[in-house]
């Protein structure tokens, strides 16, 4: 059996387009099963929310203008519900704390638990408008999953979770990732970025599965 195709998937937990893309990721896993190795990474898009709002949205209504943009973007997607008060109450200051906790879960419990936790955090933010930058909120969500917060905390305390997160951020820069979500295929030779349709993603992956680029060269 051939090795599965590696797909590096970069998102920011606060990105609405990554929330919209969640259904596509689930369908990819269902359709391609063991043919792909989907590896989840985090990229810094909302690391400093206040500055992002001032610089990119200051002339377009600030937080309220961005909130309307998020709701309008998600409105066309029934499987990506958004709370009416998103970005209007309990505004997260950063996505980094959530990313950090997710890397700690990955190290303490495993990749599957971290992926499941990422989906839950997205739901808590986009559907329930919870402030997932708050470490107290994050600890509560982790505990409600039945995960051992003390084990997760140990990876925060010893710096290993931070090292893993910085590894993601640095790798994103090395691979030329400009935003969220981004799909990196064929060892970085191909990057799909943004609101890319499911069939486009699938077609690109299936083409690589049929004709891996490491089997021949046109050079």
From TrEMBL:
Coiled-coil stretches noted in the UniProt entry, renumbered to this chain: none
Gene Ontology MF, one: oxidoreductase activity
Residue ranges occupied by any DSBA-like thioredoxin domain in the UniProt entry: 7-198
PANTHER family xref list: GLUTATHIONE S-TRANSFERASE KAPPA, THIOREDOXIN SUPERFAMILY PROTEIN
Name this polypeptide is given: Disulfide bond formation protein DsbA
Organism field: Pseudomaricurvus hydrocarbonicus
